[in-house]
Write a structure and sequence with these properties.
The complex is a heterodimer of chains A (513) and B (403). Chain A is of the alpha/beta class and 513 residues long. In chain A, strands 6-9-10-3-11-12 form a 6-stranded mixed beta sheet, with helices on both faces. In chain A, strands 18-21-22-15-23-24 form a 6-stranded mixed beta sheet, with helices on both faces. A 4-stranded antiparallel beta sheet of chain A has the order 2-1-4-5, with helices on one face. In chain A, a hairpin with a 2-residue loop joins β23 and β24 (485-491). Chain B has helices spanning 12-26, 28-47, 55-80, 88-105, 110-134, 139-158, 168-175, 189-215, 223-245, 252-270, 272-282, 284-289, 294-320, 331-341, 353-373, 377-402. Classes of the chains: A alpha/beta (513), B mainly alpha (403).
Chain lengths: 513, 403
């Protein structure tokens, strides 16, 4: 019975400056559904990328055994050949091709380079039947909902004669009914001897289908729980996920919280493409002078979408709601107006949205407030050099010169450049979206110090973070967000990791009300 | 002026070398192209037995390339935003045709016609810019359509035949020289006077810039270097003006070009709008999230291009002394090539006016030199194509080496 189909031994994977996986061992037995859980950044996706050959053999340490023989995958096609198929959170389907075309992409039913469409289509229909999807093989992917697309991905895996199916957050974008269907399908596969690895944040799902659960934390395996023997509660899983010592240090701060300086009421926003999807749902939040307000939640909970919709409607459509600054309603309908009303938004994705990488550090710092260093539309470059040098010194940005390209800075220093840019626009309210993502501990501490300095100057800060210790260590008050709604609010003094995590994870009340 | 040795001033002998290598390294692309240009000029100077650098030929060179340079400064802005404009050759034609029809057939005063043409150029730019910036249609498609539309309109306007000749005043736009106020025999005094004024202005600006740098406590180049640099520039300016003065003086077109290049070099390097254009080309999303109104900026760059293309159209018509249906045919390619040879990146965000100018001259000298040597148009195209490829290859090589 308990034949081990996959065994990963002592896997260590290092990225420049970060040890993403530290001596992780992980094994899956034949015909089981094995859940892999952990916080964002715990190393789940990295582990799966090592397994599937996205990080090729040689870039990590450790050994992988699949069905008894050692595997040294150099890329995805090699792992797929032995029956290991990974389905990513972002689906890998080509939107303007049909289901049948996608089904055999890279695996075409062809003779001498000529595709046999009859065979392709009849086979596709067969696989669609197996996953319970009643669609024509000729339907274009773009015309289907996400739920159905997910099923196509799974059918595609079947076409590759999958033996071990890896699903990375498969239900993150699905509604209740589609999720249900997908989980049923996994159970069916189990009957037919196909094993699955399920990465999920939704513990209720994990509890429902998993035969065993492995918990990762900070790039290490914490424990593997066997659900067939014991009755594992969600609380038990959560404890495993967050139960770390508070090794992070947060600089102390004297609290001096004043009146409400910024508030949004009844804020609604819709997805820019899927216009019926609500990404912000009746959100009310406020921030006081000298206060750090945290917004906690999982990826996809709608935190970034909320922040960007507030910041001059940089995201979303059909945005409604009111914004108040110091009690008076303000117009923040364009980014320009938001900035001039004292709002700044430092993005979570500094490379794509925060920096002009091919330009100098100084140009990046002044971009949001060129008026300050120019007179009559002419830039005073010596003045620019001077003010940006001051930011470099104050924020301790390590660069060879203020004229170095942003491209060549480390992640932490790039983040400080983004912060400098927004500080230079002299805002009153700063929205910091994952300001410490992907940067090392030392740089994190410096960012926290900057946050403390800003609130002591009387600014209000909204901190979006996926790291619970950070939220607890830095914030005065915490909002919890899920599915575009605020589902909890508590002062930091009353919060604990378990309490916040429970709000994040508990599904029932929110989805059924 | 006295050398006040501030602590920020790097010192003497070793300092000069350091400054020079530093300057060279940070501008390797521009200097590389400049060296290539000089090498090509020396080559043709020898091959043509000195014909290339004769004043009359230099004037010709400038006139022949004037429209390419006029449009290259506008094209550069568009390329920096990450776009392209394929329609400029056809805009040159349609504007020339309009000028021809109005002046020759309807006898409208040529100054009025120039104003109308520039306005129409702006409208053409606005028309194309609207689709690119606000309807999000790729610039390549919009301007490809424009290329066809405006060429067609040209032929319709001219009913397929050439229209001309133009009155003297209009012709002088391209073939005239600035008037000599002193009626001197031999040397053209106005030209020399302009040279002197220009030299003084340049020295004044440099001194002011240096003072401003010192005011903010920045490191400045050593004083010797500063003096030598200004002397060299003054000699170059005066030498050039003397060369021109010994012929007929400064051509009108050259004065226009100088004004355009200076203006756009200033816009791109020192103005808020220039900074925003570079930011937008480097990372449109980041620029937008920093409060830059990117669609409007893109719209403006197209209006600007329309005006410049229309200027070029007038120059071409005046130079040919007639409006022809196939004026400006293929010119867009020379303009785009000048920008890319000059170091602009097709991905956007990178490119300098000086680079585009050098690029335009490189193409121009190649054209001119090969023509004097009697190389056929066929091989001229081959050589130009190879130069374009080599220049971009040089860029890619440099980039990979630095990465």
């Amino acid at each position: 019975m308990a034949d081990v189909i996959l065994e990963m031994r002592n896997i260590t994977k290092t990225f420049p400056g970060v040890k993403a996986l530290n001596n992780v061992s992980f094994s899956v037995t034949q015909g089981e559904i094995h859940a892999l859980v952990g916080e964002n950044g715990a190393g789940k996706s990295t582990l799966m990328n090592v397994l599937s050959g996205i990080y090729p053999y040689g870039t990590y340490e450790g050994e992988i055994y699949f069905q008894g023989s050692e595997c040294r995958f150099r890329d995805l096609t090699e792992s797929e050949k032995v029956g290991l198929v990974i389905i990513h959170q972002e689906l890998a389907l080509i939107p303007f091709l049909s289901v049948a075309e996608n089904m055999f992409l890279g695996n075409e039913r062809a003779k001498n380079g000529v595709i046999d469409w009859n065979e392709s289509i009849s086979k596709t229909a067969e696989f669609l039947e197996r996953v319970g999807l009643h669609e024509s093989p000729n339907t274009l992917i773009t015309d289907m909902g996400v739920g159905k697309q997910q099923l196509v991905e799974i059918a595609k895996a079947l076409a590759k004669e999958v033996k071990l199916l890896i699903l990375d957050e498969p239900t993150a974008a699905l509604n209740e009914k589609d999720s249900e269907k997908l989980l049923e399908l996994l159970l069916q596969f189990k009957e037919h001897g196909i094993s699955s690895i399920l990465i999920s944040h939704k513990l209720s799902e994990v509890k429902k289908v998993a035969d065993s659960i492995t918990i990762l934390r900070d790039g290490a395996t914490i424990e593997t729980l066997d659900c067939r023997k014991d009755n594992i509660t969600e609380d038990r899983i959560i404890r495993g996920m967050v139960g770390r010592d508070m090794t992070h240090r947060f600089p102390p701060r004297e609290k001096n919280i004043g009146e409400v300086i910024f508030e949004i009421r009844d804020w609604n926003a819709y997805h820019p493409i899927h216009e019926d999807r609500k990404v912000s749902n009746n959100v009310n939040i406020s921030v006081r002078r000298g206060e750090v307000v945290g917004i906690s939640g999982l990826m996809g909970a709608g935190r970034t979408e909320l922040a960007m919709s507030i910041f001059g409607r940089a995201y979303g459509t059909r945005i409604s709601g009111k914004a108040y600054r110091n009690g008076e309603e303000v117009d923040i309908s364009t980014i320009d107006k938001a900035i001039s009303n004292g709002i700044a938004y430092a993005t979570e994705d500094r490379k794509a949205y925060g920096l002009v990488l091919i330009q100098e550090v100084k140009n990046n710092i002044t971009l949001a407030n060129l008026e300050e260093i120019s007179s009559r539309q002419v830039i005073n470059e010596p003045r620019e050099m001077k003010v940006t040098s001051e930011y470099r010194d104050n924020l301790n940005i390590k660069c060879s010169s203020i004229r170095q390209l942003a491209l060549n800075l480390s992640g932490g220093n790039q983040q400080k450049v983004v912060l400098s840019k927004w500080l230079f626009s002299s805002p009153e309210i700063l929205i910091l979206d994952e300001p410490t993502r992907g940067i090392d501990v030392g740089a994190k501490y410096e960012i926290y110090t900057i946050i403390n300095r800003l609130v002591s100057e009387g600014k209000g800060i909204i901190l979006i973070s996926s790291e619970l210790p950070e939220i607890l260590g830095v914030c005065d008050r915490i909002y919890v967000m899920r599915d575009g709604k605020i589902v909890g609010e508590m002062p930091a003094s009353e919060a604990s990791q378990e309490k916040v995590m429970k709000h994040i994870m508990t599904q029932q009340e929110a989805t059924q009300s | 002026m006295k050398t006040t040795a501030t602590p920020h001033e790097t010192n003497a002998a070793g300092g000069i070398m350091k400054t020079l290598t530093g300057l060279f390294r940070s501008n390797i692309r521009e200097y590389g192209m400049l060296i290539a240009l000089i090498a090509v000029m020396v080559f043709f100077q020898i091959q043509t037995a000195g014909v290339l650098m004769k004043p009359v030929n230099l004037t010709n060179l400038v006139l022949q390339n004037s429209y390419v340079i006029t449009m290259a400064v506008g094209m550069l802005l568009i390329i920096i935003t990450g776009g392209i404009d394929l329609s400029v050759g056809s805009v040159v034609a349609v504007i020339g045709a309009l000028a021809g029809v109005l002046i020759v057939r309807y006898d409208v005063n040529w100054i009025v016609v120039v104003a109308i043409c520039l306005l129409l150029g702006a409208m053409i730019g606005a028309f194309q810019g609207y689709f690119v910036a606000y309807r999000k249609i790729p610039a390549f498609i919009v301007t490809l359509a424009g290329m066809l539309v405006f060429r067609g309109l040209t032929i319709a306007l001219l009913r397929g035949e050439s229209v001309g000749p133009f009155p003297r005043g209009f012709q002088n736009i391209s073939s005239g020289f600035i008037p000599d106020l002193f009626q001197n025999e031999g040397l053209h005094i106005t030209t020399l006077l302009i040279g002197v004024l220009l030299s003084i202005l340049l020295i004044f600006l440099d001194v002011r810039g240096r003072k401003n740098q010192q005011k903010y406590g920045l490191e400045v180049t050593p004083f010797y270097f500063f003096v030598v640099k200004n002397i060299v520039i003054t000699i170059a300016v005066m030498g050039f003006c003397y060369l021109m003065a010994s012929y007929k003086g400064l051509p009108n077109v050259l004065v226009l070009l100088f004004a355009l290049v200076t203006f756009y070099a200033f816009i791109t390097s020192s103005s808020v709008i220039g900074r925003r254009i570079y930011a937008m080309g480097g990372n449109e999303k980041a620029a937008r999230l920093s409060g830059v109104n990117t669609p409007r900026l893109l719209f403006y760059t197209f209006i600007n291009m329309g005006i410049l293309a229309s200027m070029a159209g007038l120059i071409v018509a005046a130079r040919l002394n007639s409006s022809t249906p196939n004026a400006g045919d293929g010119m867009e390619l020379d303009v785009i090539a000048a920008c890319f040879i000059g170091g602009a990146s097709p991905m956007g965000g990178v490119g300098k006016v000086i680079g585009a100018l050098v690029g335009a001259f490189l193409i121009g000298v190649l054209n001119n030199g090969m023509s004097i040597l009697g190389v056929g148009i066929d091989w001229q195209k081959v050589v130009k194509g190879i130069v374009l490829l080599a220049a971009v290859l040089f860029d890619v090589y440099n980039k990979n080496k630095n990465a």
